[in-house]
């Protein structure tokens, strides 16, 4: 069964957690004891109804403040598809949390309050979704019950958002009027909005086409581990384990090993369930070659005539995630890119990006917590990468503080710096 990862985003109090709670409740994806606990908490808070937002606002601080702070992951399934939800926070001080939750998403839902229209936070989250190259964006115009299910109120928000989205690189944009509190157009079509001719949110999530979003052209297989069983029965076995980052691998395919440049042929592809005839992203497999080559962790298998960029100089967009220190020219860090780790030095900060206005501050000298900017850095070892717009797996990386081993930034590769 196919799996869809999606993230929710939007301004504070737009109803993200309530929407997820409604999805879980209406699809029978919560246990009775969970519902009982939420009902008790709702009574203690003095609400007249069961507050479904409490199903995802798991931190005590979140329940007390009525906001989302951390990224909450929830899982549910329908007969047609499995889902992983990332409920991301709306506050600007938690930008790093949103980027973390949305970085692997196939689809993003941006909630907009029908009464308030498109706010600064709505624009910021739409921009971050486009920056992260999330292929599909759904704008859920929520709280339609509070505007009398008025068609004009929905169309005002839709037209305002479309004007802003024209500045962004969004391939697939869908608008759905909903009431997360009452369940209108969430799982079932609403009888209160007969003027709306589209599908419910769940129907859209079940049907949105994501198979072609993955790169099945550029074969990329970063080697994570070399398997050499110490057993008499397996003394000749030598396999290279990892996750397919792009393209399709098949026995008989010719491959080249980077950085050595030696070529070989795939002898077999093994999985936990036995050998397979082909492997594609994001499958985890073990590849065996016909030749005994020197291949180790951090190397990459690809096609001889379709190779990634190999370079030590990289141009990227970076989000600084650390409360300690900042990113500036001269900063020395570790980069973790696919399965390769290397020391890097930041050569230049080209500009800091204002995610609210999309303006560039070219006089900026550093990136502080939650700030995003364009940087160039030089790696001690060559990295094997593609542009993030072409392959999110080989086009992304994290930066690590050498002293504390803490992840301090996440980045998206724009290309080789000149």
The total count of helices amounts to 7
- What is the arithmetic mean of pLDDT? 86
Strand content: 35-45%
CATH fold description of the largest domain: Rossmann fold
> What structural class is derived from the secondary structure elements?
alpha+beta
Domain unit count? 3
Residue ranges: pLDDT <50 for 5 or more in a row? 59-69
Overall, the morphology is globular
Radius of gyration: 23 Å
Task: Kindly describe this structure.
This protein is α+β, with helices and mostly antiparallel strands and 418 residues long. It has 3 domains: 3-213, P-loop containing nucleotide triphosphate hydrolases (Rossmann fold, 3-Layer(aba) Sandwich); 220-302, Translation factors (Elongation Factor Tu (Ef-tu), domain 3, Beta Barrel); 309-416, Translation factors (Elongation Factor Tu (Ef-tu), domain 3, Beta Barrel), CATH 2.40.30. Helix content is 17%, strand content 35%. The protein is built from 7 helices and 25 strands. It has helices at residues 16-26, 32-45, 60-65, 95-102, 120-131, 151-165, 201-207; strands at 3-10, 72-77, 82-87, 107-113, 136-142, 172-177, 220-222, 225-227, 239-243, 248-249, 254-258, 263-271, 274-276, 279-280, 284-289, 300-302, 309-320, 327-328, 332-337, 340-353, 360-361, 366-367, 372-385, 396-400, 407-416. The strands form 5 sheets. Strands 7, 8, 9, 11, 12, 13, 15 and 16 form an 8-stranded antiparallel sheet that branches. Strand 11 (254-258) and strand 12 form a beta hairpin. The protein is globular, with a radius of gyration of 23 Å. Residues 59-69 have low confidence and may be disordered.
């Amino acid at each position: 069964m196919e799996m869809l990862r999606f993230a929710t985003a939007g301004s504070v109090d737009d109803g993200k957690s309530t929407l997820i709670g409604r999805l879980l409740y209406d699809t029978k994806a919560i246990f009775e004891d969970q519902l009982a606990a939420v009902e008790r908490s709702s009574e203690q808070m003095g609400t007249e109804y069961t507050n479904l937002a409490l199903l995802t606002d798991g931190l005590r601080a979140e329940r007390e403040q009525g906001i989302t702070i951390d990224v909450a992951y929830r899982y549910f399934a329908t007969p047609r598809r499995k889902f992983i939800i990332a409920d991301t926070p709306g506050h600007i001080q938690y930008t790093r949390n949103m980027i973390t939750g949305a970085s692997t998403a196939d689809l993003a839902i941006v909630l907009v309050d029908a009464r308030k229209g498109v706010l600064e936070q709505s624009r910021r989250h739409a921009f971050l979704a486009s920056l992260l190259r999330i292929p599909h964006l759904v704008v859920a115009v929520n709280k339609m019950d509070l505007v009398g299910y008025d068609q004009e109120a929905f169309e005002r928000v839709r037209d305002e958002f479309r004007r802003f989205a024209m500045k962004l690189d969004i391939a697939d944009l869908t608008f759905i009027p909903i009431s997360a509190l009452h369940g209108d157009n969430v799982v079932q079509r609403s009888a209160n909005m007969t003027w709306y001719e589209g599908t419910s949110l769940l129907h859209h999530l079940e049907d949105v086409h994501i198979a072609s979003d993955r790169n099945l052209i550029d074969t990329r297989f970063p080697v994570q581990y070399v398997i050499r069983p110490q057993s008499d029965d397996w003394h000749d076995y030598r396999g290279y384990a990892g996750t397919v980052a792009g393209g399709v691998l098949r026995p008989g395919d010719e491959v080249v090993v980077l950085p050595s440049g030696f070529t070989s042929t795939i002898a077999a592809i093994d999985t936990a369930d036995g050998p397979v005839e082909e492997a594609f992203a994001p499958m985890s497999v073990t590849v065996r070659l016909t030749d005994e080559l020197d291949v180790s962790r951090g190397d990459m298998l690809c096609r001889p005539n379709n190779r990634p960029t190999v370079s030590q100089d990289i141009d990227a967009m970076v989000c600084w995630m650390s409360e300690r220190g900042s990113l500036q020219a001269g900063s020395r860090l570790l980069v973790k890119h696919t399965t390769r780790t290397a020391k890097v030095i930041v050569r230049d900060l080209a500009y800091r990006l204002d995610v609210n206005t999309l303006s560039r501050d070219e006089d900026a000298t550093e990136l502080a917590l939650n700030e995003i900017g364009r940087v160039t850095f030089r790696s001690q070892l060559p990295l094997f990468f593609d542009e993030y717009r072409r392959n999110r797996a080989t086009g992304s990386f994290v930066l690590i503080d050498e002293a504390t081993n803490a992840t301090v930034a996440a980045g998206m590769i724009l290309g080789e710096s000149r």
